[in-house]
Amino acid sequence: MATHQTATILATSKRKMIIKELDQFVAEDKFAKAGKAAEERMAHYLNRAFKNDEKVRVFNGIRLEKDQDAAQIDHLILSQYGIIIVESKSVTSEVYINQHGEWSRKFDGKLRGMPSPVLQAKRQGEFLREFLNDYTELFFRKVLGFQLNFEAMPIDLIVAISDDGIVHRSDEILLEEVHKAERVCDRIHTILEKYRKANSLLGFNFSLNTRETGCQFSEAALS
Hints:
This protein is an alpha/beta fold. 35% of the residues lie in helices and 29% in strands. The chain has six helices and twelve strands. The strands form three sheets. The chain has a six-stranded mixed sheet, with helices on both faces. It has a four-stranded mixed sheet with strand order 7-6-5-11, with no helix packed on it. A two-stranded antiparallel ribbon has the order 8-9. It starts with a helix and ends with a helix.
């Protein structure tokens, strides 16, 4: 999908709440099959939770391209007040997260290091912000002649672990981003409510000073 076309779809999505379903593909090995199953399960949970929510748009399996670089995002939740990225992670056995936030998983009875899906999701969020800033006029109203951008827009991250996986966390680290897939939608609702309360307390649509308060898309972006 062309870059500008992707941005336009994000900005002008209509009444359908689940904007993009997962693309069809054939998994070639057991790891790819497990990853595909994890994404499908998470997409199912999101569809069930948000298919009738007019204030939320859900995109599954989107690819963004910018300056000869690209990012693949498993699930993107778009609301008036902020954005949530969900990274699906297939865990069929056990994963361990130490006090430094480093991940490892059991494979054939042995622990092996693995890339942190939290850091992966953070990189996706950074890429998404840069990508969207190229198309601010599609999303935001101008305020007093100034074109707002996505620098103040909250982008929260969630790592969705397979429901049958086991997660061992160090007591020395707080990982609000990591949840079993079946609990992710509850976490999304909590984040969206935080956005809404912060915005309503201020009594205006945009904050240029803090990520915590959030800022709203134009009405056209979610209508």
